[in-house]
Design goal:
single chain, Double-stranded beta-helix, 46% strand
Amino acid sequence: MVKFKNFVQDNDNISIIEQKGVFTVFQHNMDKSVTPGSAADAYYMSKTNCTMKQVLIDLKDNAVRLKPGAMQFMTGTVGQTTGVTGVGDMMGKILKSKMTGDAPIKPLYKGTGVVVCEPTYYYPIIENVLDWGGLCCDDGMFICCDDEVKDEVQMRANFSSAIAGGEGLFNLKLVGNGYAVLQSRCPREELYEIILENDCIKIDGNMAVCWSASLNFTTERSGKSLVGSAASGEGLVNVFRGTGKILMAPK
């Protein structure tokens, strides 16, 4: 048996930010491992919410998948495998990796015990994939997910989107019934939630953290002509059309 002391439940310097399913996001309220030269920076970082966050996964005879290198430590009867079922599956994962820019192998952790992810200064957010009807996200944003959530490839609507939009021709798409943990550059309370009902939104820049797979995603000129786009000062914008929702960073 493994017991934790001075950890999430009994450490005054640790706060739980979010808890859904087997996933718990917690933060270290202040970096106390400081020197005289770094003490001032650590103090002001804690006051502005620039703190280390981690994801704790409490497994009870179930399984999750993590991005490679995400695990800091694990306890209990938890086994780690590649999750690859054969040569064909391996080739498919490599192909998807080349398309989306994500790692080809997302290790599977299965059993009963605790898995804790490496600390990060990004902001982990937990999303119910089923509520999104399929969730798309930028390359490299994936941290971990329930094993019931599968990763697929979502192709951009047109080739010009890949050339001009800065997002690539393909995005990672998560489908299934379960939770996924993504890393955002903004905390959850700062993200705009935009709900579209057979409509569209144009966003200047790579500000969408994740979006419904049902949305048609393209990159277009902000105006009807090159002259109009140049005059507006916006140039190209990312356009989402259809019915679904978007989480957007304000900056």
